[in-house]
Amino acid sequence: xxxxxxxxxxxxxxxxxDIHNFIDNVFxxxxxxxxxxxxxxxxxxxxxxPQSTDAELKAAVDSxxxxxxKWKATSIIRKQQIMFKLAALIRENTEKLAASxxxxxxxxxxxxxxxxxxxxxxxxxxxGITTQLTGEVVEVAKDMETRSYREPLGVVAAIxxxxxxxxxxxxxxxxxTITGNTLILKPxxxxxxxxxxxxxxxxxxxxxxxxxxxxxxxxxxxxxIIDEPAIRAISFVxxxxxxxxxxxxxxxxxxRVQANLGAKNHAAVVPDCNKNHALNAIVGAAFGAxxxxxxxxxxxVLIGQTKEWMPELADRAKKLTLNGGFExxxxxxxxxxxxxxxxxxxxxxxxxxxxxTILLDGRSQKPAKYPNGNWxxxxxxxxxxxxxxxxxxxxxxxxxxxxxxESSNExxxxxxxxxxxxxxxxxxxxxxxxxxxxxxxxxGQLGINxxxxxxxxxxxxxxxxxxxxxxxxxNFYGKxxxxxxxxxxxxxxxxxxxxxxxxxxxxxxxxxx
Length: 513
Ligand code: NAD
Description:
Blueprint: E1 17-18, E2 21-23, E3 26-28, E4 34-38, E5 45-50, H1 54-73, H2 76-92, H3 94-105, H4 109-126, H5 129-132, E6 136-141, E7 144-152, E8 155-159, H6 169-178, E9 182-186, H7 193-205, E10 212-214, H8 219-227, E11 231-237, H9 240-252, E12 256-260, E13 265-269, H10 275-287, E14 297-303, H11 310-318, H12 338-353, E15 357-360, E16 379-382, H13 389-392, E17 399-405, H14 408-417, E18 420-421, E19 423-427, H15 431-440, E20 445-448, E21 464-465, H16 478-484, E22 486-494
Parallel strand pairs: 1-5, 8-9, 8-11, 9-10, 11-12, 13-14, 13-19, 14-17, 16-17, 19-20
Antiparallel strand pairs: 2-3, 4-5, 6-7, 7-22, 15-16, 18-21
Helix pairs in contact: 2-4, 2-7, 3-4, 3-7, 4-6, 10-11
Bound molecules: nicotinamide-adenine-dinucleotide.
Nicotinamide-adenine-dinucleotide binds next to helix 8 and helix 9.
């Protein structure tokens, strides 16, 4: 198999797609056991992904270790040319990548294209590497200068989640490699296909053998990455449960770890806002991608009289079409798995049991054409209190939980008391109120009248609090991303005429003063 061709319908496929490891620029069938993957819209079997063997995992590391010295020594211009080519190939293959995402992950075609394009933007930004990786130089004394520059780390690894099969691998591939590292990438075992297409595009773009290797599997593969001494750094995106474990054990093993975790993003609605814009933005950001985005607006904080807008919000949510992602006009697709559907439904039930009101209940909704998918329609829960499970847990489904407060200050205190701090949005026409939120909110990414404030890749993804491990020391992409994948080296040199070189030893600490 080369990179797989994915169908663009949810119809049962004749032959299940087998996913292979990608080592030394070759797709290699695994000798291991298989994990079956189902189309979330139908639960038909579509793909099989291997739990790679120890020997296969080791072969990937050996390949990356062998490729490293030559890749490190490759000129920055050559690396930049490869990146230009990769960006062009990803753009050309957007539809193919998006089809694999819709089939394996479930999101709509339009949303899957967005997934690809957001990743592509990281590649495109990385094409400017020749001005982004510059160091510093200072003349510290006569004939003496100190310069700093950045070197790659060696072999690095990326471990990805299921919800952005293109974007999140592309948070790592461009920056990890253009800085001179070689990379081992483990896609989510629930959506491996898109990364395989990207691997094929990397090969076509001219990446030499071993610079990018892709290995598959679940927790066993992750443990291999954490414990393998040749791997110097790990980029992780996913849940708190896995991420905190990987951060702790990876750091204890002496690796650099960047880890973006779960979220509970709040939108505060101030009565003076543009109501129409706010309601549309909230519906889109709460229910788009069936709520399976780390920056989904899953929590609404209604200030004062805005609680009276809820019936109108529910009317807009009711108009969204739940359907297979390949269907024209689908607004949201299914959840990733039957387990995920059950978990989301249980959380809705827990809200009801704890005394909240289910204003809009999506639990029995399903499209007629796809009765066997993992469907939950848009759901709105009102009168939620901060102690309720539907508020304290990340739901990761098309469920909006709504709390009422009386003032902007009360909204700020409520949002800041939440453990997570990925993002927040506020809707207001007042500059003074917006500034108050901007200064006081502890969320790492803030939108003012913007519902999903994920910055473009010239900035970094800047989650905060429990949404990042280790206090967010190493953000993804942007300047922080380049810093993560490189090690500063500083060189102080003295070049003087022979007759001016020191005549005797000086044992005191040099101070240059
Ligand atoms: P997940 O943690 O279940 O899986 C992510 C990766 O970790 C996968 O590759 C998986 O194989 C591995 N993994 C899972 N359990 C493991 C374990 N016990 N031990 C070792 N490895 C393990 O996450 P997911 O369900 O794929 O993704 C959804 C989560 O990711 C949500 O919490 C979401 O908020 C978060 N997310 C965060 C961001 C961000 O930037 N903050 C972006 C996207 C998704």
